[in-house]
Amino acid sequence: MSVLGGVSARPDFDTEAPTVPVHIGIIMDGNGRWAEARGLPRVAGHRKGVDALRRTVRHAAKLGVRHLTVFSFSSENWSRPAQEVASLMGLLRRFIEQDLRELDQNNIRVRPIGRRDNLSKEINELLTHAEETTRANTGMTLLVAFNYGGRDEIARACRIVAERVAAGEIAADAVDETLIASYLDTAGIPDPDLIIRTSGESRLSNFLMWQAAYAEFVFVPELWPDFDEAALEAALSEFRNRNRRFGGVVAGVTGG
Ligand code: IPE
Ligand code: IPE
Ligand code: MG
Predict the structure, then answer these.
(1) Three-class DSSP labels, 182-226
(2) Comparing 6 with 193, which gets the higher pLDDT?
């Protein structure tokens, strides 16, 4: 039986809202350093990173996380050597070919986010296939941020809104945060509560720029291939200790 076998039997998520984030974003960083530390080619680190991704998806689903966004390839990662870019494309292809069936059996819905018009036909078809195969699933949503950049996503959304305003379909004064969010790749998905970045780097690197406005950030030292269930649980326990205020005040602390 699959590791995810118990997912559909999980308790109603709403009752657990304070302790388990509804949406977690992960910046899966440090594959190259993991490999270099072992005298291996960087691609060996990316391959190990796929194992960490599998572990994390299984464990997040088991914990009742509703949406998990994983940063797999950024709009800036094209600047890497062509051979590394090609191997990252190959790993995405293999991940979808090998894991889609298990994801689907475990009621996980796959949703690619990111720019599509400059990806190969083959990668585009695979992303569409993964999305369509799992469209009706009602368990965790796995948002795969591939060829994704937050600024690019906002610019693409603005372009569509501008076209619709120019066509007279939207009034300029109807353009507000809710409208813009509805044109982002993440439309309909609640903002991330928690963003985890591995490998000790403390930056966003263009991940979920708009959506991260009130996310809690947890930066962990582990390199992504070493990230495991215990590391995820540790990040969740740090999240539970955070005091989220969303610009307001904390009840009972100010005494009115
Ligand atoms: C993250 O690992 C994976 C991708 C960005 C695709 P890196 O390849 O960035 O690893 P480091 O940061 O060089 O160690
Ligand atoms: C961010 O990591 C992108 C992904 C994890 C896919 P990078 O390694 O590309 O980010 P920088 O260059 O260190 O900021
Ligand atoms: Mg990196």
Answers:
(1) CCCCCCCCCCCCEEEECCCCCCCCCCCCCHHHHCEEEECCCCHHH
(2) 193
Write out pLDDT tens, residues 89-106.
999 999 999 999 999 999
Query: Mean pLDDT across the stretch 177-182?
Result: 98
Residue ranges of domains in the chain: 23-149+191-240
* Strands (E) located in the chain: 23-27, 67-74, 109-113, 141-148, 194-197, 216-219
CA of 28 to the centre of ligand 2 (A): 8
Q: In the beta sheet, which residues pair with residue 25?
A: 69, 195
- The dihedrals phi and psi of 113, each to the nearest 5 degrees, come to -130, 150
Q: Which CATH superfamily is domain 23-149+191-240 in?
A: Decaprenyl diphosphate synthase-like (3.40.1180.10)
Name every protein residue with a CB atom under 6 angstroms from any ligand 2 atom. Answer: 27-29, 71-74, 77, 201, 203, 205
Place of tokens 């205020």: 245
The pLDDT assigned to 250 comes to 79
The answer to whether the beta carbons of residues 18 and 27 sit under 8 Å apart is no
* Lowest model confidence (mean pLDDT) among 64-68, 115-119, 211-215, 251-255: 251-255
Tokens of 124: 């585009």
Strand (E) or helix (H) holding 81:
none
